[in-house]
């Protein structure tokens, strides 16, 4: 097997699909910072040393010389590595021995090197710029003396001692460069590009790399490539010896292990080092490639998949088993291919340590307001300073009192006060079994415009129950009635069977349900996909896993264990007429070979041999649409589509079954067949029908969200007709609403010139315009007896399948894509990455998007959403900001409700604290003018009695106002003598006190009227003025989805 296949095949399946499959289709946000080194990708670069980004999809293209030297970390080709012994490291020798070059390049590469580079980290969806600098003693001293002057000077990446890194969100960090002695060939660190010369040097000679220049960024090790003059990730490096399974299983010697440890780092994810006994008992995180045996693992923390996943070993070409290898010491053997923060779990930990900036406008505006108030405080400080000098006060008193104004105008408690509402919301959510690991997302939850739901396990119950089977009857080629029990499918006693029915197909479906699955026996319990578990339990058979060193089914001794399925005791399934007395033959089905479910093929299959039989039976199950193409046309009943449509329209899940029999097949023949040879010329058997009920709270919650004008979307991997049926049942699609479904009329998914037809699922005569997605007028076909027919055509929604969604994104117009996003209600047959991409596309048209799923294949969408709510176990909660222990969608309105309450509270606290500081600033400023000030206990009374109860403890507002008003009136009108001395109150007449009270009442009335009536009108006038004279940049930008919705409504009219 070629080394590229070893890494690109199994490894891509071991990485969460949200990272591996569609990363090349995601747009990367450009930087908004004004850093010189960060240039827009679509502009002509203004610096000769800047690197561009090569998309991951271009990995298979040849390397181009000259100005097209675009690189992406980890995307270099693997060619070969020459053996080279260690060489002595010397600090006086150059970083890499080079040959004389006469190559002329206008860019600043080669011997001189570059000053900066741009790098796209595809696994993090992060774009950074690395700029090198050197320290100088005079410059450093000057920097300390004059901080606002830049004392450093740019340094080339090959020589710098530290770097400055900026990402696309304008965040800057400074990192040192670590230099380590190495003395190994360059190909032990990086995959060679090819044989052509690069910057004057030839990879054919595989030069020695004396030193490693290492940059640690977010726990990722970037190593400087001296020929490419950039820092690169090397986690895609491949050993040339990875060309067959035998060499993989040979392992590494101690010297090679030390070299790998130096290049890739220790296998640590910022955890305490384990002792040797702990390593023998505890788990050690790593990414592995299974070489022998099989295993079942829980990937819920990594992928969000709550169902244990079965893994099969990596084998040689065409999955050929090794018949000369035996491993008696372990059940499974795997090769570690990634360790530490390079693993999938490490990437997940990194995503938690360095989350994407929320960019909540309220927080940005809050700190801008604080900056403005700081300017006001500076003016007050200067005015008070001058006034105190005029009054002849002592210098220490002048400084202290003038600085008091700054703490009054800019209250230090303001940022903390803004989080008070959030903390109370978190406590209330916790009492309702909703937990949050990202408190800043609580306020965002109050701004949600759209919420996307997964179907299975979220809107519907977790498990699927087998409703029954519909079997093809021969010879009339019609489906049987629904067989709701295994005894109806195949009666155990011969005399109970209908003599007019051919039970061979019945038997094949029963065998399919008993053997075609990925179940494993763990501690006496079947573990695996819930659908497979329900299907197997329906048969009431028994399953025995892993009988080794047997030859009962014609297999050699030194082979993988064979699993066996047996019927329940006393069930006479088969009758061998050759036996006297027609005694029943003992049934034992040995599973000799399995082809796991592949999402692209949408089917799974097994090769099964019955004990004592020389042939082998192939049993296949999968999506009805997928099995149609691999079955013999003559075996498909005429009502195939009608029956399938009947069940899917009613929300049932349908699995198709097919089989074939291959005579006289040896073990070598079985193992030598390809999957496509096995899964061909099949005999269709029938349908297995599963029912999936709605959860009790689903419809109620959907209605509540609709009443709140929050858009609801379904995003599922299930059949589109089933999804539409469930959407209608839970009121996600209204009963009178037309639902249009697109399909290809010309071309297919991979054809850029393909055409789509958008037809109503209920009436094919109703269609949408393929360019505007608005209903086409068909007045002659509207039923005049139904006065609401024309209205219903205009009241429509869209249901889109994953292949159409993919085509629209890749080849469709931007207008069609945006209209599909604002009109679509159901997105079916969506892969995990397409769910992720749907959320990102909704955000691209200014939706504040939430996603709620049960954790199965939703990890990417949960992380991408503004508010992700996981209904899965706590271990999968790291993929989402919110986790609900109550496994239904009732948590969604609770999060929105608390988010809105927290948001309103934050706004009110901000206004309250701002008003308090403004009032106190004015009071103190007037007192300073007369060389007076509030007493210490008066400041304390304002803080403890007026501010803390409302802004911090959130006591009921009316109670707080009444209590503080009573205390204030008491001190104003008739305070006790001891209280007046304690509070240092100035004695005033009763008449003046009533004047002050009257002014306070008038001020309250004026403030109330202004806030209710005057300021809204004033704000509207200011907005109109900005719109008229401010230019387009100063106008408030409306959310794009609102503009699209208005346009769609206009077309509906």
TrEMBL record:
Keywords: ATP-binding, Magnesium, Membrane, Metal-binding, Nucleotide-binding, Phosphoprotein, Translocase, Transmembrane, Transmembrane helix
Residue span, P-type ATPase A domain: 283-352
Topology in the lipid bilayer: Multi-pass membrane protein
Record-level GO cellular component terms: fungal-type vacuole membrane; vacuole-mitochondrion membrane contact site
Transport in keyword set: no
The keyword Magnesium is annotated on this UniProt entry: yes
Catalytically driven reaction(s): ATP + H2O = ADP + phosphate + H(+)
Location of the region described as Disordered in the Swiss-Prot/TrEMBL record: 54-108
Similarity-based family: Belongs to the cation transport ATPase (P-type) (TC 3.A.3) family. Type V subfamily.
Matches recorded under PANTHER family: CATION-TRANSPORTING ATPASE, CATION-TRANSPORTING ATPASE-RELATED
Name of the protein in question: Cation-transporting ATPase
């Amino acid at each position: 097997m070629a080394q590229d296949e070893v890494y690109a095949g199994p490894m891509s399946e071991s990485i969460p699909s949200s990272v591996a499959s569609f990363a090349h289709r995601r747009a990367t946000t450009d930087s908004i910072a004004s850093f010189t080194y960060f240039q827009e990708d679509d502009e002509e670069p203004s610096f000769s040393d800047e690197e561009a980004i090569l998309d991951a999809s271009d990995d298979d293209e040849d390397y181009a010389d000259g100005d097209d030297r675009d690189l992406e970390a980890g995307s270099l080709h693997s060619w070969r590595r020459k053996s080279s012994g260690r060489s002595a490291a010397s600090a006086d020798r150059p970083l890499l021995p080079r040959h004389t070059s006469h190559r002329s390049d206008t860019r600043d590469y080669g011997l001189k090197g570059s000053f900066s580079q741009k790098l796209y980290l595809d696994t993090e969806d992060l774009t950074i710029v690395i700029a090198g600098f050197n320290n100088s003693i005079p410059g450093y001293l000057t920097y300390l003396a004059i901080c606002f002057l830049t004392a450093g000077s740019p340094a080339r990446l090959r020589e710098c001692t530290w770097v400055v890194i900026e990402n696309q969100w304008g965040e800057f960090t400074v990192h040192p460069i670590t230099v380590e002695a190495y003395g190994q060939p360059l190909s032990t660190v990086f995959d060679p590009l090819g044989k052509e010369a690069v910057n004057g040097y030839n990879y054919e000679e595989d030069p020695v790399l004396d030193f490693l220049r290492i940059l640690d960024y977010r726990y990722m090790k970037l190593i400087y490539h001296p020929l490419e003059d950039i820092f690169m990730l090397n986690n895609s490096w491949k050993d040339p010896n990875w060309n067959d399974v035998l060499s993989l299983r040979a392992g590494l010697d101690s010297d090679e292990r030390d070299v790998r440890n130096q290049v890739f780092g220790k296998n640590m994810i910022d955890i305490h080092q384990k002792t040797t006994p702990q390593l023998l008992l505890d788990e050690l995180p790593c990414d592995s490639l299974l070489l022998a045996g099989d295993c079942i693992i829980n990937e819920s923390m990594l992928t969000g998949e709550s169902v244990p996943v079965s893994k099969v070993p990596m084998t040689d070409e065409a999955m050929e088993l090794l018949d000369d290898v035996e491993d008696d010491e372990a059940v499974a053997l795997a090769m570690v291919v990634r360790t530490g923060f390079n693993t999938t779990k490490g990437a997940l930990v990194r995503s938690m340590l360095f989350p994407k900036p929320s960019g909540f406008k309220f927080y940005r505006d809050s700190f801008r307001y604080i900056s403005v108030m700081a300017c006001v405080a500076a003016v007050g400080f200067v005015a008070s300073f001058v006034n105190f000098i005029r009054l002849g006060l002592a210098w220490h008193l002048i400084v202290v009192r003038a600085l008091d104004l700054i703490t009054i105008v800019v209250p230090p408690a303001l940022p903390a006060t803004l989080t008070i509402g959030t903390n109370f919301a978190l406590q209330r959510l916790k009492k309702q079994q909703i937990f949050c690991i990202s408190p800043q997302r609580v306020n965002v939850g109050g701004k949600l415009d759209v919420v996307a739901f997964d179907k299975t396990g979220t809107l519907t119950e977790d498990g699927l129950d087998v409703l029954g089977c519909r079997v093809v009857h021969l010879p009339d080629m019609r489906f049987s009635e629904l067989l709701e029990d295994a005894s109806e499918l195949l009666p155990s006693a011969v005399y109970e069977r209908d003599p007019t029915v051919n039970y061979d197909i019945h038997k094949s479906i029963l065998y399919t349900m008993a053997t075609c699955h990925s179940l494993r026996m763990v501690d006496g319990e079947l573990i695996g996909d819930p659908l497979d578990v329900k299907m197997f339990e329906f048969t009431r058979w028994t399953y025995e896993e892993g009988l080794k060193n047997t030859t009962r089914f014609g297999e050699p001794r030194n082979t993988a264990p064979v699993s066996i399925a047996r019927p329940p005791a006393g069930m006479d399934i088969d009758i061998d007429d050759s036996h006297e007395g027609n005694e029943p033959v003992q049934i034992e089905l040995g599973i000799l070979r399995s082809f796991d479910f592949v999402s692209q093929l949408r089917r799974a299959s097994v090769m099964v041999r019955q004990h004592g039989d020389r042939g082998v039976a192939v049993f296949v199950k999968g999506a009805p649409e997928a099995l149609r193409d691999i079955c013999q046309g003559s075996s498909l009943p005429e009502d195939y589509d009608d029956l399938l449509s009947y069940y899917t329209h009613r929300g049932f899940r349908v699995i198709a079954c097919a089989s074939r029999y291959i005579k006289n097949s040896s073990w070598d023949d079985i193992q030598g067949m390809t999957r496509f040879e096995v899964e061909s010329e099949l005999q269709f058997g029938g349908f297995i029908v599963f029912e999936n009920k709605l959860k009790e709270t689903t419809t109620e919650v959907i209605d509540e969200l609709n009443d709140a004008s929050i858009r609801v979307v379904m995003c599922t991997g299930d059949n589109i007709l089933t999804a539409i049926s469930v959407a209608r049942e839970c009121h996600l699609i209204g009963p009178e609403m037309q639902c249009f479904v697109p399909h290809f009329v010309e071309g297919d998914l991979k054809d850029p010139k393909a055409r789509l037809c958008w037809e109503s699922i209920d009436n094919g005569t109703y269609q949408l315009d393929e360019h505007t997605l608005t209903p086409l007028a068909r007045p002659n076909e509207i039923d005049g007896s139904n006065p609401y027919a024309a209205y219903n055509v205009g009241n429509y929604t869209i249901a889109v399948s994953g292949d159409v969604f993919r085509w629209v994104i890749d080849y469709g117009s931007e207008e069609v894509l945006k209209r599909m996003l604002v009109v679509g209600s159901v997105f079916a047959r969506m892969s995990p990455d397409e769910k992720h991409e749907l959320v990102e596309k909704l955000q691209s048209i200014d939706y504040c998007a939430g996603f709620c799923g049960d954790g199965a294949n939703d990890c990417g969408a949960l992380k991408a959403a503004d508010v992700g709510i996981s209904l899965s176990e706590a271990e999968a909660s790291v993929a989402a900001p919110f986790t609900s222990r109550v496994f239904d969608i009732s948590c969604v309105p609770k999060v929105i409700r608390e988010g809105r309450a927290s948001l309103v509270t934050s706004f009110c606290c901000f206004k309250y604290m701002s008003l308090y500081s403004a009032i106190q600033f004015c009071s103190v400023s007037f007192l300073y003018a007369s060389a007076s000030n509030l007493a210490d206990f008066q400041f304390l009374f304002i803080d403890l009695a007026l501010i803390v109860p409302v802004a911090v403890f959130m006591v009921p507002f009316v109670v707080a106002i009444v209590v503080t008003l009573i205390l204030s009136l008491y001190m104003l009108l008739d305070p006790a003598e001891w209280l007046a001395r304690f509070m240092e109150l100035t004695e005033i007449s009763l008449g003046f006190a009533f004047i002050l009270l009257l002014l306070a009442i008038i001020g309250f009335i004026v403030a109330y009227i202004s806030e209710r009536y005057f300021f809204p009108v004033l704000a509207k006038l200011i907005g109109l003025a900005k719109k008229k004279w401010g230019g387009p940049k100063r106008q408030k930008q409306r959310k794009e989805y609102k503009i699209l919705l208005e346009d769609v409504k206009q077309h509906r009219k």
